[in-house]
Structures are given as structure tokens and as C-alpha cells.
Amino acid sequence: MTARRETQFSEGGKSKCVINGNGTSQGQWGRAWKVDWFSLGSVIFLLLFAPFIVYYFIMSCDQYNCSLTKPAIDLFTGKAHLLDIWNKTPPLTWKAVTLYITWVIFQAFLFMLPDFCHKFLPWFRGGVQEGAMTPAGIVLKYEINGLQSWLITHVLWFANVFHFHWFSPTIIFDNWIPLLWCANILGYSVSIFAMIKAYYFPSDAKDCKFTGNFFYDFMMGIEFNPRVGKWFDFKLFFNGRPGIIAWTLINLSYAAKQQELYGQVTNSMILVNILQSLYILDFFWNEAWYLKTIDICHDHFGWYLGWGDCVWLPYLYTLQGLYLVYHPVQLATGSAIGILLLGLAGYYIFRMTNHQKDLFRRTDGNCKIWGKKPNYIECSYMSTDKTKHYSKLLTSGFWRVARHFNYTGDLMGCLAYCLSCGSEHILPYFYIIYMTILLVHRCIRDEHRCSSKYGKDWKEYTDAVPYRLFPGIF
């Protein structure tokens, strides 16, 4: 349910392997082989309540003016019943179905086009790129064309807004809840298909993980890289389209609705559009780099990614813009500038931290970071064939400040989105709360694996860089 979060530790040399019950090797990274009771309970909780959480947030805005407490109080005191709220929920419509199917098919078409952007844009890595080696030793190729898809989509959007007028720019907001049903149908359909495919016609059986627990396998996925044909990769498509490309269009539709309702677009709405668009464009500009992140390298494709990218991402990551439609906020000039600077500083830290790591890896340490030759700690580990491998962990630049300082920059950007909405309601602050929990959990999860992988060398590294996210605090 995330996009392009990365750590220093997800890739470095080859993945350590373990042996499963059938005698075949699989990667240390990725989802579990066995499910403990806590993991199973967490999985069942998310399967049951994550769809309800999305529904609750959206209906709170639709019926309770974005108050998260009032519907709960009304339900608890008997002033309202779930059936009453359900009966007031806009139903699925043929217009929404047509719009959503057209959108997904169009993005699938763009996904299959060869990339031309890399031929015209300097420094952009597009076209056919190799991903990381999978636990089964396979290196897949990907057609990197997300930036091209985003540009084509948005050129058509603005051509419609300023010239052709095929549809209203508020079309997404006006059909937002009917589109939620469409997104859920697709999310569940692709998740069910991915599970059936893993059992009966997997793309590569060696990269499948079965626990024998239906709920865990359904949520966390069985296949590592399910594909249809040579190029249609489920993980890259659903992680990178259609939800993320829609993100900017959703925000633009919110801005258009604000203009329609109030006769102006507030500076807070402009801030949200600018800062989140910067994040999204960064994702597509660095899509080739994204192939080496945790989402692609270690996550299997199941409900967590299938439903999460179809529903959770577009509906909960855009709450700030939705809130500002119902509660337009005109920030004081000083506040707006401060929030903009916070967001830009967070982006700079996020991007430069990842750039330093990428430069260090590509040059095998033969580079300069902050004007100096970088320091690093060389770690060793043994693979199952008793071969010794080495990885280098950077301890210079931003990676000297904290072990996950790119996450720190990411959280600064998330906070800026939320602060743009003022302080009247908690709803737009869900994003920073959720991302803090998610990234702290990811820090702990990744470092547990690295401790197992590198042993005493990991202790040396954590002594050199003692803080995870916030220097002096955590």
C-alpha cells in the first residue's frame, strides 16, 4: 500500500538464501514461510477492517462534513444506524463503471507502449531496464515508461479542460463514491486472480511461497512477480499505475470542484497539488531505480498490493485535497511559505539521501559525497552454498545522520501535506499518522533481517550510525 519507500539495506550483493521444506532455495527477504498467531491476527484484522476504514473516511466527508468522531458518536448513542448510513451511500452507477473501465484499459495500453522519453530527456533512465535478481536467481526486464504514461495522460486532461470539454474536470469528485465500488471490485478481482494463478499457472514456480494458511497467502501474496505474457507485470502495473497516475488527476479534480463551489482555489489546495505532484513526478522520473526497492525486490503480489494500490492508495493518500473541498482553507502568506519550505526540504532530503546511496552503489564507493571520499562498513555473509559475499553499508553524507534518513525526509513531506489543511479536523492528518507507523515498522522489520544477515558486522554499523530516523531521539 505504499510507493517507492526504500532503505539502504534492501539490496547489497546477492540475497542470502534459506532452504525450504522441498529443498529449493528461496530469498531471506520477502514474506514469511510460516505464520505465527500475531501475524495471522494482523492479517485477518486488515482484511476485515481496511475496507471499512476507507469507507468510513469517505462517508465521514460525504455525510458528516469530514468529522471522524460524529458518525461514531451517532452510532454509539443510537442517533444513527449503519443501515441509515449505508442507505445514504451513493450506489454503483454505469457512468462510474464506464469511467473506471476506460481508465484502467487506457493505463494498461500506455503501460504496454515502448518508452520514447529516454530518447529526448537527458539523465532519464527509461526503456527496457533490468530488475534485481529474484530469490530463484531470475533477473526480469521491465519497460520503464511511467513518465511517458503520466505525461500523455495529463496532456489529454489539460487538453480537455482548456479546449475540447469532453467532460467536466470535476468528474472524479462527482463520482468519487461510485468509483470506490469499482476500485474495490478491481482490487478484489486481481487479488483473487493472482492467488489462483499462483496455484495453477505461476510465472515462475520457484519464486512462489506457500504457507498453507489461506488468509496469509491471500493477503501477502504467493507469486513474487506474476506476469501475463512477457511484459505485463502485475506488481509494477498496480504499484505504478493506475493509482499513482490518478493521484494528480484526483487532486486536480478536487481543485476544480473547489473553484466550482467557492469561485476560487485556495492556496492550501495549490500547496497540496504542488507538493504531491512533486512526489509523484519524482516516482516516475526514478522508476528504473524503483525496480530495486523493497516493493519490487521483496514483496509478493497479493491483496496487500492488489487491493491496496487500487483502493487504499488513491482514496486515503488524497484525503487532504478531499478535505479542502469541504473545508476550504486560505493560509496566511507566512504559513503557506513555511509549509512549502518544509515540503521542499523534506523532498530534498528524501531525494539526496537516496541519490547518495545510488551513487555509492553504482560506483562501488569510488565517488565523493559532500566533497569527500565516502566512509563505509564492509559486511560479509554466507549463502547456502557456503560462498562468502560482501556488502558495503554507507556511513557518510545523510547516511551518517541516521540509518533511514530518507524516511525522515519522506515524513517531513507528509507532514507538509497535512499542515496545509490547518488544524480544525484530524482527518487530513491520518496520512502522517499512518506513514509514521508504517515507516517505523519498516525500519524495525528491515533491521531485524539485516541483523540476522550480517551478524556482528551489523552491530559495528549500528554503533557507527546509532539513530534510525531522528538524530538524538530514535
- Order of SSEs: EEHHHHHEEHHHHEEHHHHHHHHEEHHHH
- β-strand percent reads 5-15%
The averaged pLDDT comes out at 88
Distance between the termini: 24 Å
How many domains? The number is 2
Radius of gyration from CA coordinates: 23 Å
- Helix-residue proportion: 55-70%
Tell me the major beta sheet.
2 strands, antiparallel
Walk across the major sheet and give the strand order: 1-2
Oligomer: single chain
Low-confidence stretches: 10-28
Helix count from the secondary structure assignment: 21
Overall geometric form? globular
Q: Structural class given helices, strands, pairing?
A: mainly alpha
Quantity of strands, as a count: 8
How would you describe this structure to a colleague?
The protein has 474 residues and is mainly alpha-helical. It folds into two domains: 300 residues, no CATH class; 144 residues, no CATH class. Helix content is 59%, strand content 8%. The chain is built from 21 helices and eight strands. It has a two-stranded antiparallel ribbon. It has a two-stranded antiparallel sheet with strand order 3-4. A hairpin with a 5-residue loop joins strand 7 and strand 8. Helix 11 packs parallel to helix 16, helix 12 runs parallel beside helix 17 and helix 12 packs antiparallel against helix 19. The longest helix has 30 residues. It is globular. The two termini are 24 Å apart. About 4% of the residues have low confidence.
